[in-house]
Every structure is written in C-alpha cells, then in structure tokens.
Amino acid sequence: MTNKNNIEQAITENRYEWLGKLKELGQELRRDKAGLIGVVLITTLVLVALFASYISPHDPTEQDLTARLVPPAWYEKGSMDHIFGTDHLGRDILSRSIHGSRVSLWVGTSVVLLAGSFGVVMGLMAGYLGGRVDAFVMRWIDTQVAFPGLLLALIILAVIGPSLTTVVVVLSLNGWMVYGRMTRSAVLSVKQSPYVEAAEIVGGRWPRIIFRHILPNLTSPLLTLAILEFARIVLAEAALSFLGLGIQPPATSWGLDVAVGKNYMFMAWWLVTIPGCAIAITVLAVNLVASWLRLISDPQEREKQFARHMAGRMRKQLNLKNEKELARS
Amino acid sequence: MKKFGRLLLMAMFMLALVSTSSFAGNESITIALGSEPTTLDPQLREDGGERAVNDNIYDTILTRTPKGELIPLLAAAMPTLVNPTTWEVKLRSGIKFHNGETMNADAVVYSIKRVIDPDYNSEQISFFSTIKDASKVDELTLNILTKGSDPILPSRLYWMKVVSPNHSKDPKFFEKPIGTGPYQMVNWKRGQSIELKRNENYWGTAPQIKTVNYRFIEEPGTRLAGLMAGESDLITNLLPEFTKQVPKSVHILGLEHPIIILNADSGVTKDVRVRQALNYAVDKEALAKGLFEGFAQVAQGQLLSPSFFGYNDQVKAYPYDLAKAKKLIKEAGAEGATVELVGTSGRWLKDRDIVEAVAAYWKKAGINAKVRIFEFSEYLNRLFDRKTRADGIFVTSSNELLDADKSFSAYYKAGGIGSSNTDEKLAGLIDQARSEIDVEKRTDLYHQAVKQAHDQAYFVWLLNIEDVYGLSKRLDWAGRVDARLLVQEMKVR
Amino acid sequence: MGRFILRRLIHGLIVIMGVTIIVFVVTRMVGDPVKVMLPLESTLEQRAAFEKKLGFDRPIYIQFVDFMGDIARLDFGDSLWQHRPAMEIVFEKLPMTILLTVVGIGLACIIAIPMGIIAALRPGGIVDRITVFGSLLGLSVPQFWLGLLFIVLLAVQFRILPTSGSATPSHLIMPALTMALPTLARLVMLVRSSMIDELNQQYVKTSFAKGLPFIRVVGVHALRNAGLPVMTLVGWEVIRALAGYSVIVETVFAWPGIGLTAIQAIEREDLILVQAIVFTAAISVVLINIAMDFIYKLIDPRLKLT
Q1: With contacts defined as CB-CB under 8 Å, which chain C residues touch B121?
Q2: Residue B17 pLDDT greater than 60, yes or no
Q3: Which of A150, B34, B332, C248 could bridge across to C244 with cysteines, CB 3.0–4.6 Å?
C-alpha cells in the first residue's frame, strides 16, 4: 500500500518536476526573443510539413500549361488562386514550397538520427572501452575526416543514382564523425565520476553502463550539436538538389525548385526567391534555437546572460527614477 | 564598417569599368557556347563546342544553304556517281590553307582516310561508316568508294572537314587548327575563351566581322545573364520564354524531334489501340504553345522535318482527341493500366517538362504513367537495354544528315539501338531504302515506312523544336536549319 | 618531431589510398563511359570497338593493377572527355580554385576579425546583437541562392560586375564574396566569443589597469590568444573548399576551378578525370592538415604533437 503510494507520489513529483522544468524553459524563452522566434518558426514548419496535404491549396505536381509563370497575387496579373504565383509548368509555388518542407525536415531528421546514433555509439564505445577500440575508432574518424567528403558524395550519388534514400545515406556516411568525436571526449570526462564507478562496482555490464549511466549525461551538448547539424544538413540537401544530384522530380525539394527556377530568374523572380527564402528561414530558425539552447545549457553563459538581463532592468529602473526625479523638479 | 563598405563598392565599380571597356570595338563579337571544345581537331570528336568553333575554321566538301539545300563548297560541283559504289568529286582550284599549303585532291583524300581509319577511332564515324576508301584521280579530282551503294553520300560529305596533310601531323594540331575557312585561330585560353580572327585571304566572300570571341557557359541561366548584361552578342538554346526579355531573338525550325518510343512487343502498349490512344491523348498544340511559347511545331506523325529527305507530307499528326483516346483504351481493356515512362533531365531543351506534361495527359485519358527521370547515363542504360524495354521512353532525336536513314535505322528499324518494335515489314523498307540509288524509288520506300510506323503508332510523335537564339541589338543573323553558327553569315550594325 | 612527421605522412598515405580505392571501385562498378561518349545513334559494333580501345573490356583486376601503377607514376592517363592527360587538366584548374579560396577566405578574415572584436567589446549591446543576428543569417542563406542574387542584382540589374567567367580580376569579386559569406559568419561568431573570453581574463584587466593603450591590449594581447581557434577554423574552411565545397560557387559563376570540372567530369562519366581530381583533393587535404599542425606548433610550442 505504502509502496504504491510512494510510487504514485514519485510519479506526481516527477511530473511536477518535469512541468517545472518546462515552465522554467518557457520563462527563459520569453527572455530570449530570438530563441522564441526560432521555436515558433520551427513549430509552424513542423506543423506545415505534417499537414502539408491539408494546407496546400493545390496539388504540388498538378500542372497547368495555360497558366505558366503567373506572378504572385499582389501583381496585377496575379491571382489569389496562386498567392506566390506559378512556375514554368504552371504549378503552384506556395503548394510546392509547403510540400518541399517535408523533404527538408525528413532528410534533416533522418540524417541526424542515423549519423547521430551511429556516431554516438562509436564515441561511447571508444571513450568507455578505450584501448584498441578507441584507437581503431579514432583512426577511422581521422581518416574519414580527411576525405574530400563532398566530392565523394557527388560521385557516389551520380553512380548509385540520386534519390531521397541515397541522399540520406550519403549525408549520414559523411556526417557521423563529429558526433563520434564529441561523444568520446564527453565520455572521457564523466568516466571517472562517482556514479559511473559505482555502477561498475555493482557489476553492470558495459552496454548497460554506457547507455543507462553515461549517455543521459551527454544529452544537452548532443542536443545542441544535433540541432546545429540539422541546419547544416538542410543546407546540404538543398545544395545537392541544386546541383541535380539530390531529390529528383516529380518529387519536390526547395533546392530543386531553385535549380529549375534559376533558368527563369530574370523574368520570374518568385521561382527562385520563394524556395530560397524557405530554406533561409528554416535554417535561420534552427540556428536561433541552437544558439539559444547553447546559452541555457551552458551555466557560464547563462550566468552572464542573467547578469546582462538584470543590468538592463536596473538601468531601466534607474532611468525611470531619474525621469521621475526630473519630472518632480 | 560603413567606410569599408563604400570603399569596397568603389573598388568594384572601378574594376567593372576596366572590364567592360574591353568589350568595345565594332567588328568584334562574343558568342557564348554551352560547352568548351574538348579538342579542336575537327575529325576526332562528336562535340558541339568543337563544331561551333571549327565550322568557321574549316570548310567542308559540300555545305548547305541556310534553308538546308545541299550545295558545293570545296567541291566545284555536286559529286557524281561513276558506278553504284563510286562517287567522283571535283574540287575548286586556288584554295589555300591558313598556313599557305594548297588544298587539293591529296588533302581531301588524306582527310577522308584519316577519319575512317579504325586506329584513329573517330567519334564521327557514324557519319562516314559507309565510306570504304578514297583515291586521287588528278590534282583536283578524287573518287570516293562506298561499301555497297550509298545514296546519301553527298549528305555525308557535308560533314567532311578537310585538314592539311602536313599540319595535321603536328602534335599540337588539336589546339592549333589550320583550315581553309573564313576564320583562323588566334588563341585558346583553356577554361575561358577562344579567339578567332578573319582570314584575310579567304577564297570566298570576305566576312564582315573581324574577330570572334567564344566563351563557355554551361548554365543556360548564366548564359542568359551574360547576354542581358551586354557581355555576349549571341547565345544558343535560349529558353522560349525569354524571347521578349532579350534585346533580340532569332528562331528557326531545327533538327530536334522529341518523341516517346512505345514498346510494341509487350505490356499494354502491345495493343495498337493503346498506342494510338496515347497519341490522341496528348495535346501537341498545347505543348508547342504552352511549353515552348510557340517556338515548336507539331511533328506530323513522323521523325522527320519537312526539309528532310523522306518526309511524307501525306501523313499528319494524330489530332488531340481525348474522347477517342478514352474509347480506344476502353476497347483495349487497358483502363487504369500503369505504364512506365522513362526520361532524363537537362540533356535536351525542356526534356523533363515534356515527359511530365505527357504523363499528365495520359493520366487524363485513363493510363497512369509512372514517370521515371534518370540521370543521363542511367537513362541511356534504359534506352539501349535490348532485353527489357520500358513501356515508354522519351528521346530527342537530332538528325544532322537531314535524311531519314540515320534516325530510322536507330529508332524505327527492329533491332535498332533505340527501337521497341519487331516489325519485319518496316525493317525491310528501311533496309531497302538504305541502298537504293534511285531518288524516286528511295523516296517512295521512306514514304511507305513513315506511313507504316504512323498507322502502327510505334511512337508518340510530339514536336519539332525550333532553335532559338538570343542576340544583342547590334548583331544581325537569320539562323540556319542545320544550327551551324557560321560567323560569316552574321553582321554587326 | 621526426616521428611526428613520419606518423602524419603514413596516415596521409592511408587516407589517399583509401580515397582512391573507393573512387576506383565506385566508378568501375557501374561505369560505362562509352555509352555516354558516343552519339546516341551509334551502332553496337561502334560502341564495342570504342570500349576495347579504352581498355574497359578487360577484367576489373587487371584494370586495378594498371590503376595502381598509374597512381605510382602520378599519371592517370588521358581524360575520356577532353582527350588530354587528366593531371594536366587538374593542374590547370587547381590554381583557379586556390585563388578563389584564398581570396574568399582572406576576405572573410579581413571583415570578420574587426567585426568580431567590435562586437565583443560590448557583449549584449546593440552592435553585438546585430552582428550575432547578421552572422546567423549569413549561416542560413544557401550559398547558391546568394550567388544567383548577386548575378541578378550586381551583374544584370546594375551591370557593375561581369556575370560569370574568370577573364579579369573583376570576375573574381562576386564568386569570392559568395565563397566568403558562410566562412565570414562562422568566423565572426568565433572571434566574438573567444574575444569575450579573453577580455574577461585577469591579464587583460590588469593591462587596462596598468594604463596600456586600448588598441594594444585588445589588438595584440587578446587577439593573439584568441588566435588559435580562429586559425583552426580558417584551416578547416580552406580544407572544406578544396574538398569539394567550392563546387557550388564555381557552378553558379562558371568559375573554371576544380569543383566545376569535377561535376562536369561526373556528368560525362569521365572516370579518369574524376579519379585524378579526387586524388588531388585528397593530397591537398592531407598536406594542409600537416601544415596546420606545424603552424600550431609555431604558435604554441607547449602543444603536444601526437
């Protein structure tokens, strides 16, 4: 009975703790305007990508050769039917951009997950097991880092044939090393901590120790890294598609749309500009969130920021006081 | 920071002044090509960039008028048939190469032997594959021997550039071309430009333009930017949409025919009604008007332009008739069937767009086309795959001989490199025409072949595309059906 | 030191061998350059003859042995596309990429270092916030898109710069600016944060207290200590450019460098040229890595070289 109560209590406490943390995070967010904008943007984007088929006014592949290169709605020749105009095949730019977000987010997420999990596992093993394993993994990473990565990626894509899957695989193969290095150095720093040693004494097996005891302590730096990598991957996918070695039609991708649109950029700027802006806004939002996360996860930075915030408030109060005094006199 | 920005802008501006001033000069023009020549040996490669430059440096034995009619160039008259496998060519006298050597029967015989030599391994061999040998008769006369009779030898001689026997042995020949043409080489800065100047001793009419600069820009958008910024005077493959934006444009019916090869041996397309339906289902007028802004004409149910030998003016395009298409498909029991439509991207003007548009039309008629756009080399695997043919393969045929033989042997004839039918009758007609010397009989054979293929609907014939060029305000040029960029025909105002 | 050099060289060799073998395997696996090279309507016999001429009909292991010999002699043979020695093409294009990289990254340094310092002087101030946001924006704009924007505005609309190519120094401006932007953004952030750290160090405060001139303290003492991470980043950016990332800028501006050539060679299935380019890129990366280690050693002799 008491046992059950205890558990329930623990759960509620835990929930409160969790809620409290979330609340704290919200407060932090309110203080950091840029971070807030980033979070809002990303949330919107994810929603847009999830519900793309419901939001987009047209089928992104539906073409209308009689309504090609229609300008955006605010032009005289434009119409509300195509708010951002149409492309060279009469397809709706807005719908294409909405559907393009799926590709970017999908590629970004899967590459971060694939490369991230592989890199983290390698890093954990190297850091915890040390010795030969460590030497081997580090040598591997050093060697692969020294490869001309993009060139190899382009060749592999050209040979296997570009597609969504190959893009994900190639970008993952190219991007796991940074996780590996970072995880390894983080593991080295927590390896000697008392709780890990305790777990070892109790006789935990190494996979259990690294996943149950070491990994949770690396969440915050890994999260920041993953988000930064996400931004990089979104740009990389766009660049590959722009070069014609990424996503292939009839699928849509922002980079692909820019590549096609560039032939028309002197008469129909919207073909290039809208997907280009979509890429820039997405990556910017992710970067804003990443820099905010870095701030709050770094105690030193956090302190500084808090000091700045307080200083600002004090200055404001001081000014107010001065003004009041001025007014009084 | 502000100051620095201003400084930077000023520096940019001054640099720009310096660079633009070098484009001045009345009789000098700049032509932007899509690719840099890989060599300037005129006989080795099949290379558009090389051809664009060398067409002005070298003369061919025969040439064509801008409208496509064959006329003598280095030859004094049209070649005559001595016996079914021997042609006699008489040459003009008094023509000299840029280095002073004389152009004579020796030079022509040498050039012919050079290009057909298996060790030389020329990529142009498909133009000359029927030539067996050549021999000198006298200083200005030679005989050309063919393997079997070859009615289109004159068309082939229009491709035969004549090189100098001595100079072509120079190891640097591939970058220092010496011909008999109206322009001669000045320099070639790899990766940047080729400069030609007028051959002041040219035997024909002297061209007006003194120097020509070729620049190489692969991206059509960038090429267009160069024209709009006033850096070049002539660009090729202008997108039809831009004819209103550029200072001036020229368009002329070209050699390119986009078609879809239908698999007549298996799948739903085995049924002739389905193949016909797929023809009826496509609104070719709309493609020409919409996709090409009117700079293309509907192909008249054959892989030939009106200017080609073998064109059958009795055969017309399948009209756009959705109801009929649906009816035929229903009759064949192919409603809702899925076909694989293979295409590529970036190789030909609007290649991907055409395929996607055709797929959309087919869908309306009740056939689901699964569009598969492959990167070019993978696409070629599909096109050349003899064992499993895709239901539909998009290809753009470009027939530089202006004669039915080349494209029919490749796509119409059973067993041809890109054909998807096993029609013995059609193959027989094409084989017979290949060695028929009598012009009238040969014409008739091709007319029959055209009709047979049309009735069987082995292809979806789409368009005949016009070549569109962007020109600067000051340049006058009318274009040519064979798409050659002959600077001697251009004028600067 | 000697052992360090030896180890580095051996590692470099492993990298280069690894890269070239991967490229050999990948390209030969499906590579049939013949079909791309000949005109569409060529017959099967013509294709077979051509393949034989190029030696692609031989068993793959014989081709591999040949290939290893080629590497040893630094001669990959003639490019299938250009019909001249592949290394000749590489040596022609490589300087163009190096020029673009050096100017682009040089430009980034010249702008980023003062900008980062100014921002660091007053963290959280308005200048700092604008700088931070500006660099985030710079990191987020796709390079190819920025390049297109430059062409539309500077070359076609205002006609102050040539659109593409490499004939005059003014042709270099737009590609170099485009090349510089992401590097610039990363550098500004790095200079800013390392300067903030340095300026908070005791020795800087002491120097100020001692009355040393402001410029001297910030420009000489603090900057020198912030130099190591900045150096690392710059080196990394150079490596990135040579490892193929210049391909985007080169494609947009038709800059005849190694990246543009690589993508053209890939499109044309020119295995020989692709191999030569990747090999050269791998060597460059290895050499720069070794050079960087030396520079570290020069800057900070306490560093242990392993």
Answers
A1: 49-50, 53
A2: no
A3: A150
- Are residues C168 and B417, on separate chains, in Cβ contact within 8 Å? no
- Model pLDDT, residue A268: 82
- Report the gap between the CA of B86 and the closest CA in chain C (Å): 24
Residue A294 phi/psi, 5-degree rounding, is -65, -40
> Residue A257 corresponds to which amino acid?
D
B197-207 exposure pattern, b = at least 16 Cβ within 10 A, e = fewer: ebbeebbeeeb
Q: Check CB contact of A264 with chain B, cutoff 8 Å.
A: yes
Give, in degrees to the nearest 5, the angle at Cα B306 between B300 and B308.
Answer: 120
| Cα atoms found within 13 Å of the Cα of residue C10, Cβ hemisphere only | 7
Cβ-based neighbour number of residue A273 at 10 Å: 20
CA nearest to A157, candidates A144, A168, A146: A168
* Whole-angstrom distance, CA of residue A213 vs CA of residue A221: 16
Nearest CA in chain C to A240: C248
Q: Average pLDDT by consecutive 10-residue portion of chain A (329 residues)?
A: 59 64 73 83 91 85 77 80 83 89 92 94 89 90 85 84 89 92 86 77 77 79 88 92 84 88 83 91 91 74 64 71 71
Of C131, C244, C256, which is closest to residue C195 (Cα–Cα)?
C131
With CA atoms as reference, report the closest residue to B185 among B39, B46, B21. B39
Note whether C171 contacts B1, CB cutoff 8 Å. no
CB atoms within 10 A of CB B7: 10
Task: Please work out, in degrees rounded to the nearest 5, the angle formed at the alpha carbon of residue B89 by the alpha carbons of B87 and B90.
Answer: 150
Give contacts of B190 with chain C, Cβ < 8 Å. 92, 256
pLDDT (tens digit per residue) in B30-80: 999 988 888 899 998 888 889 999 999 999 999 999 888 899 999 999 999
Q: Does A69 touch chain B (CB under 8 A)?
A: yes
d(CA B287, CA B301): 15
> Model confidence at B26, in pLDDT bands (50, 70, 90)?
low
> What does chain C come to in residues?
306
Measure the N-to-C terminal CA separation of chain C; round to a whole number of Å.
Answer: 9
User: What is the rounded CA–CA span in Å between residue B277 and residue B328?
Assistant: 6
The pairing of strands B234-235 and B28-33 is parallel
Is residue B329 within 8 A of residue B280, CB to CB? The reply is no
Of residues B374 and A179, more confidence is placed in A179
